[in-house]
Every structure is written in C-alpha cells, then in structure tokens.
Amino acid sequence: MRMHPDVEKLVKAGKLPAPVGERLSQLAPGNFCLHKSFGAGKIVDWDFGSKKITVDFQNSSGQEMDLQFAMQKTEWISTDDFRAVKIEQIEILRDLAKKDSVALVVHILESHGGSVTGDAIEQLVSGAVIPAKEYKKWWDTTKKAVKESRKAVVPTKRTEAIVLRNSDITPAQALLADFEAARDIKGMIKALEAIAADMGAFDQDSDALKQLLIEIDDGAKKAARVQLGQAMQLVAARDEVIGSNKTLELDPSAVRLSDLIAGSNLDKIAEELVTLPSGRQRAVFEAFESAFGSEWIDKIVTVFDQVGARGVTEIARILNENNGMPKLMEHLSSALARRALGPDALIWVCRERNASSESVFGADVGASILNLLENDHLSDGPRKTSRLQTLLNDDKALLSDLVKNMDLNEAKNFARRMLDCPVFGDLEKKSLMARIIKVRPETVELVSGQNAAKREEPLLVSWESLEKKKEELQELIRVKIPQNREDVKIAKSYGDLRENFEYKSAKDLEKYLNHRRTALEREIAQARGTDFKGADTKTVNIGTIVVLADDKGNEQTITVLGAWDSNPEKKEVSYLSDVGKALMGLSVGDGAKIRDLETEQMQTLTIKSISAYHA
To answer: Does domain 5-79 have CATH number 3.40.140.10?
Structure first.
C-alpha cells in the first residue's frame, strides 16, 4: 500500500517515523479495518487535529475512535477481503453463494490466512449472505462440493479448521504434503484418514502412494517402542488406505498389526486399545489370529475385561463369528468366581444374559456387581462403576433375573448385601428391593424389624481413617469444588459446548465431586471412631486378630478392623468386607469359607486362635 500523501508530508518533514506513517496510512478514509469487538468496518473520516477517526462498522455506524487507540487495536484488511466486500458489495457475495459456493468458501479462506472453522463460516455467512433458515442445507451441499473440488481439506469435526490447499500442486500432492508435514503420529493418522477418504485424487499418481507406504512403515516401527497405541492406529489407517486402492499391495517386509501385537505385552496392548476408535480396535482384534496362531482365542479372552466397553463388544462379536464363545464363557466363569471381572465386562454379561452369556449369569454376577460398587465407592478418584450402577437401576428386569434362579440363602445374602451397600440411597434401595421381593417374597423380612434397625447401626472405624475422611471432605469443600467451578467457567468461555471437551470433562468432574461430597458427609455422620481396645476375643469381632489353618496345617493371620481400614498387604480386612462378614461371630474351632486375599480362590479354613488387636 502506498503511503497517504498527507502522511507522507509529515514523514518527510521528520514529524513521523516511516513505520508509523505506513501504519497510519492504512487508517486513511476509504480503507477497511478489523476490530476484535466491532468486527469489520470502513473508515469514513480522520482528523489529525483532534487525533480522531470515524469508522462505519457493520453493527455500529459512525464509531469515533482515538487515532492512537485505532492504530493499536485495529487491523488493516484489503478491499478484496471477504469482510470488506461484505460491507460494500454484499450482493456480489450473495450471487456467488448461489452460483459458485466453492469459490465463496475459497474467498473466505483466502481472507483468513488459509484456514477457518465451519462455525466461523456460519457466523460470517448465515443471515447476511445466506438466509439463516436456508444456511444448514446450503452448507451441507457446499461442504460436500468443497471436498470434491479438493481445493481445501475439510475435517469431520466442525470445530476443526477447513484448510485451503496450495493451488500450485495437485490434490494428490497436497494430501501427501499434509502427511509429510505431520509432526507426530497423531498428525500422520489424521492425514492418512484424509487420503483414505479421497483416493480418487491418486488415480493418476499411484507411485506417490507406494512411497507413502514406505514412510508409514518407518514411522510405525519407530513409534512401536514408545507409542504402541498410536503405532497400531497408524498401521490400521495404512491398511484402510490399501483397502481403498486396488492397485496397492503391502510389501512382505512391512510391519503389520500382527507383528506389533505379537511383540508386545498383552496388558500393554489392552491399555492402549481403550483409547482406539471401535473400527481400529476391531482391526487389532482381527489380527490376533495371525499374531498367535492356534492360541489366539486363549490370548484374546485374557484381555476381554481390560479393553473398555467398545472393546468388549468387538471381542465378543469376533469370538462369536469364530466359534470362540465356549472359551470366553470359561474365562468369564473363572473371573466371576474370583470376583475379578471389570465393570465393562460385567455390563456385557448382564446385557447378554438371555443370549451369549446365559450360561454364566447367576449368583456370582450379583456378588461381583456389589463387590465392584462397594470397592469403587471406598476408593479415591473418579468413579469407574457409574455405568454399572445406572444399568442396575435402568434395567427393570435385571435384579429379578438375577435372584429368581438363586437358592433361598443366596437370594437372602444378596438382598442383605445390597441393603448394606453404601453406594445406594434409601429411596434407591427401596426401589431395587421391590424388584427382588416381587420374585422372591421370602426376602421381604429383610426390609423390616431387626434388619431395618441393624442397618441404622453406626459405622465403626479407626480414628485415623475417620480423620482421613474428614480431611478429604475439607479438601473437596475448600479446594477441589471451588477450583472445579472456575474450570467450568473457563471451559464454558471456549464456546460450542457440543464439541467442547474441556467443558464436558469439567462437568463430569463436577458431578463426581458433588457425589463424593454427599457420600463423605453421610459416611462421616454415620461413623464412630474407635481404637479397638477391649475387643471381645471369645468370638471374631472388630479389633481381633484371627489365626486360621487349612487342612494341611498351613496357617495365615487376618486382622478384622473398622469399615474403612482394609489393607490387603497387611492382611487387614474391614468387618463389612466378604472376608470380614464370613469371620464375624465365629469361635475357635469353627470352619470359615473365605476367599484368599491374594489368589481370590475360595478356601475352607479352621479358626485356631483369636486375640486382641493393638494399634
């Protein structure tokens, strides 16, 4: 831009530095500028004497601004910038939107440095260039046309930027350039997805794709050592590209999903799989056969309850297609008996109870559900069993199906445990018990009389554990909840709550913190601290040390303590735990059927001695 004559005189007279003169010339009448709050505008007048300029912004005509302030807070835009054209020649844009919508989008991209989000395009176009009620239909058609034109990269998410391609290179070269420009594996995967979705661009350039396969192979081998999950994603995305092009063949020496699986620890694979989309998960699971040969079914069932909800569904589908369900049922039966099944696998068992998982659906499922809910409730950190609890409440037939085939003692024990479970509120317990009583009327006695009174007994806990609960509550009230409120506000300011990950995460944490606060307040109010002195050692009681022996004479010692005092490493158990409940009230010489704290196997032990615990 040439310097304005009036400003040029001041610069030549030494009254203004040349850079200031150049910037001031951009604010000359007739030019266009951009303000962060007011948007685009046309400068209609300036007055050096009063140091003022007047700007006609789109929504604020005749806006007077201090000249120095305008130089700092506005940005010059050219007369052919989309925003400038929109001010003075909007009919041109409206006509272009009808006749060549791709050209309109390219114009917008060029005016915004080559990239802009779909949301930003809507703000620029809807209502002014395109009637608001017609915008969605127009944009759906336009977005497809832009993608087919290959003049810009169109992402799947509207919050991600649409990026203008370099007009001097072919679409195929542009796609490959995106891959080569990727700074990490995640960027490579994204670029590969764009290539797979636009294979037509390579109809005349298959050699470029072959070179790409070599680069992917190198990237995957390097990533496998430190980023196994992303390496698997990269190889799976590469296979999608190959599957989309009939002329491509994978080199025999290229790394395959089966290579990555066979060379990695199964626990590590399961950990990484949780983060993968379901389509990529399925590709990994389908590669197990190539990785492990005849042992692949044995291998895949071991990760069944470690791969998240999507992975559980995919594994079950693959095993069903390959006659592998008997092996899965064998694994589930063993895990249920050991109370070692995770929440996602338990949810699948419950949902498939009338189909695939019918053979393992029984009393162990009910006990496993309550175990998980109780353990999760007593642990620190975000809850892992909220979906399982929701299923228990929402699936009206689940409890009925669980207890109808139990024997009387199993049904009563299950109902009693559920009534004692601290996870459920009073109204929730009544609702769940009503479903049990409907099919097992014998359990009605549990919700009245002595049992009702018993449930109101206080929780006996050590003074140390009570103090920890109080400290946790204070930290929630004074630190974590106030900080979360601020995080919610900040995340909300990012806009578009539908695609705002930070906002969703902050709101999820808000629910957890409020739930945790309510639970802590209820537990602390119910708790009674004790030092366990004076425990009656005639029978197993709270605050007693129990020596037990198996039929071979092997002994082990278990200490029964307060509700919050479990410590498996020291063989200390809560009196409310399965082991604690199995021991409470027994005398020397009595037999106890309990689960080993380390192996989780059921065993029958004889009580050899009972002594008092000393802190």
So the answer is: no
At residue 360, what is the residue type? V
Whether the model clears a pTM of 0.70, i.e. scores above it, the answer is no
Terminal alpha carbon distance of the chain = 84
Give per-residue pLDDT as tens, 226-257: 788 888 888 888 888 788 777 777 788 888 99
CB neighbour class for 440 (10 Å; exposed up to 12, middle 13-18, buried from 19): buried
Given the DSSP bridges, would you call strands 555-561 and 544-549 parallel, antiparallel or unpaired? Answer: antiparallel
Buried b (16+ CB within 10 A) or exposed e, 89-98: eeeebbebbe
CATH class of the 459-530 domain in this structure = mainly alpha
Note the pLDDT tens digit of each residue in 344-385. 999 999 999 999 999 999 989 999 999 899 888 876 667 789
Domain limits of the chain?
5-79, 89-165, 324-457, 459-530, 544-612
Q: Which residues pair with 77 in a beta bridge?
A: 32
Digit-coded pLDDT (tens) for 33-70: 999 888 999 999 999 889 999 999 988 889 999 999 99
CA atoms within 13 A on the CB side of 295: 5
The second-level CATH assignment, the architecture, of 89-165 is Orthogonal Bundle (1.10)
Six token digits for residue 544: 């007693």
